[in-house]
Each structure stands twice: as structure tokens, then as C-alpha cells.
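Run log // design_07
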């Protein structure tokens, strides 16, 4: 019986170029092949693509191996959830219509085996970063999305790909842990704990694998990314563990 629940984020497929992205996509598909036999649910928690925008009849080309694998998994009865990240917030209904994947706009709260999970990509949470929080509201505004959609795909996707080329994923910026008091998603999680208990807070976005104890009953897990770490988390019904794929 399939019992494990898997969490991964920040594949950033498409970045920094086609060759490196294809190698990363192949690695992701190998990972999905390796977990398929015991996976009951898969949470893809944002920035799966370095850019994604769905026109009415057009989607970004490429990534066909990942899409084929996800379709195979949903056809086999595995439930898959796709969280909108800051790079792929313009996902609409393509994945749900074609593959039965559930699209998650913001946070999702789940309970499994008596454990409560607070799940979110991680962008726009916690203190600071007011500039991005303002941009996030603009980019997620339906009117702004409609205005972008009337730009011909060749131009619109070209602009977007140029924009994503300046991202930290494309430029391989290394993230550094500077203590739990400076970890803004941990600060956010502790604020939530003042109101309500969760056993696990699981985020992406940070690009640094982390497993931090918040209190005697709660942990903060960041999923890292797949440019450097190939990191993910798995819940086996008893505990949540951070792991690494194809790491010696």
C-alpha cells in the first residue's frame, strides 16, 4: 500500500539555459520514477518552472518529460498538488484539466496521520520585502494578467524569459543560514504558532534546505532547491524527513 507523502519545490525548469534545464528535468523525472511505487500524494510547492504563463490556447514550450511523468502518476491514482510560486504564479487550469492536478493559490492546511501541516511556497510571508509584496499583488491581479494575455505570445513569453533571466536561480546565488532569528519564514511560523498549533511548517522559496525546531512539538522545514541540492521531504506517517536525491 502506498503511504508516503512527498514534498519538493524550486526546480526552476527553464533556467539558466536549455541544456542545464534539460539535465535538471531528467534528474527530476528520475526522482519521480524512484518514489512512484510508494507515493500516495505529491506536493509540488512552487517555482517548478522559472517562468510559466498560460494563454488561452498557448503554454510555454518544453518540459514535456516532466508533464508526461506527472500525467502517468495521476493516472495511477497519485494525488498531486501544484502550488503557485513567485515564478509560476500564472498557472491556470492546464494542469488541472489535462492531468487532474490540484492548483493551490496560497497556503494549504492538511492533516495526515494525526499531524497538522501548514504548506505554502513561502513568497510574500514574514517581515520585510515590501517591494516584492507589492509586485505580487500586481502580478496576481486578474486585470494585470488579462492585460499581459493580450500581448502576442511570442512577445509576451520573450519578455517574461528575459525577466526570469535576472532571477537568483539563473544567477546561482548561494543562500546562507544566518540564525533562526533571521530566518523570516521561521519568524512567520512562530507568529502562527501563537494562534494555532501545527506540527510542521513546510515551505519552498528560500533555496536552502532547512529543518529547524520551533518548539517541542513544531518544526519548520524548507525544501531547498534542485540547482545545487536536489532536496525534498518525505512524510512516512510518523515523521517528516529532509532528504537528497543522487547525492553521494
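design_07 sequence
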Amino acid at each position: 500500500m502506498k503511504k508516503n507523502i512527498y514534498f519538493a519545490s524550486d526546480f526552476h525548469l527553464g533556467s539558466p539555459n536549455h541544456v542545464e534545464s534539460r539535465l535538471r528535468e531528467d534528474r527530476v523525472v528520475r526522482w519521480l520514477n524512484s518514489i512512484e511505487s510508494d507515493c500516495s500524494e505529491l506536493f509540488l510547492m512552487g517555482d517548478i518552472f522559472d517562468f510559466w504563463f498560460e494563454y488561452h490556447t498557448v503554454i510555454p514550450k518544453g518540459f514535456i518529460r516532466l508533464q508526461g511523468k506527472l500525467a502517468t502518476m495521476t493516472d495511477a491514482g497519485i494525488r498531486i498538488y501544484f502550488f503557485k510560486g513567485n515564478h509560476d504564479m500564472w498557472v491556470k487550469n492546464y494542469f488541472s484539466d489535462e492531468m487532474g492536478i490540484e492548483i493551490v493559490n496560497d497556503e494549504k492546511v492538511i492533516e495526515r496521520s494525526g499531524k497538522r501541516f501548514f504548506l505554502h511556497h513561502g513568497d510574500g510571508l514574514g517581515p520585510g520585502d515590501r517591494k516584492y509584496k507589492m509586485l505580487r499583488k500586481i502580478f496576481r491581479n486578474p486585470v494585470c494578467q488579462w492585460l499581459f494575455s493580450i500581448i502576442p505570445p511570442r512577445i509576451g513569453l520573450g519578455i517574461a524569459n528575459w525577466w526570469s533571466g535576472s532571477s537568483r536561480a539563473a544567477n546561482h546565488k548561494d543562500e546562507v543560514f544566518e540564525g533562526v532569528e533571521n530566518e523570516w519564514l521561521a519568524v512567520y511560523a512562530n507568529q502562527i504558532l501563537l494562534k494555532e498549533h501545527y506540527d510542521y511548517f513546510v515551505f519552498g522559496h528560500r533555496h536552502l534546505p532547512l529543518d529547524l525546531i520551533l518548539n517541542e512539538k513544531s518544526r519548520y522545514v524548507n525544501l531547498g532547491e534542485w540547482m545545487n541540492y536536489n532536496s525534498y521531504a518525505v512524510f512516512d506517517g510518523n515523521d517528516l524527513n529532509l532528504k537528497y536525491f543522487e547525492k553521494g
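Helices lie at 18-35, 64-75, 94-99, 130-139, 142-149, 153-164, 184-193.
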